[in-house]
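Many introductory courses stop at the sequence. We go one step further.
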Amino acid sequence: MLETLYSILQQTLTITAFVLGMMMIIEFINVKTDGLWSKKLQASPWAQILIGAFMGVIPGCLGTYTVVSLYIHGVVNFPALMAALIATAGDEAFFMFSMFPGKALTITAIMFGLSIVVGGILQLTMKNKFIGLSEKSFPLHDEPECHHDHHEHTGRKNLKNMTFVRALLIGLCLLVIGLILGGVIDEGHEHGHEHGGDEEWIRYTLLAMFSVILIIVIVAKEHFLEEHLWEHVIKVHLPKIFFWSLGVILVITLLNEYIDIQSFITNNHYLVLLLAILVGIIPQSGPHLVFVLLFAQGSIPLSVLLANSIVQDGHGALPLLAESRKAFFLSKGIKIVIGIAVGVAGLLLGF
């Protein structure tokens, strides 16, 4: 029981750390450039869709976390978010490429193309392209203080005249770095997956990210720390991301203790397709692995695995569930419709 609770805490901390880190870095870049980069990206919806699709096909959840963070900030719109969520196969992509690389490449190519098409259709048809986001989710940086050089004060002077907020943020960065080095925040261990060294890459990414954030916190002006990092990122987003991630992972873990999804699999391909889509709704990496293994064994056709891969998004959408339930459930609904259409068409065509 304690081991299960520790694993749940690991997953929650890893998700929270990465999304929080991405949001802090995005906030700094946006302020440092007076919002120029985000305004250019906001003005290029087709580029957003392409970027979203590319980030989505990156194996694992980091690419999806990044796009979700950009969506929460209002930098990319819902069609771009959908492109990322359709293109991603979560952690299961690692297993697919290790077990059947040729077919995995085909599945990835199909999902990438599908994500571009769906993103384009949504871009042309949707009126509200920021589902579930309030105006506060679009941080504008027109304050005079934001246009000054963030390195006006040296890090030494800032440390010598340290304020409470700066000390708190430095302590938070050091705590996260310590948890990563201590193995508490550990992507590879938390999922119980062997990604061929990928867990090391994720750990190094988090270490580099929070090392950069630590430098930013030391050299940045007080206004940026108080108004942008503390008031906007930490106070507004941190509690929601942490507690929603914790709650969802806890519920899913408890359900998995009592429900053996694999036992429901039968030789009826349409029933298996329905189960694949239903399991795909679960916002967590792990349960979907059963369909990867069944496909590798030749027990299910490619269309069933493809449908599951389209509907699922690993852990990537958990922060979206925390920030906008409306956007989360709408994205799942769209992906369910696409998954059913692709799965049924595939079964009828015999693949």
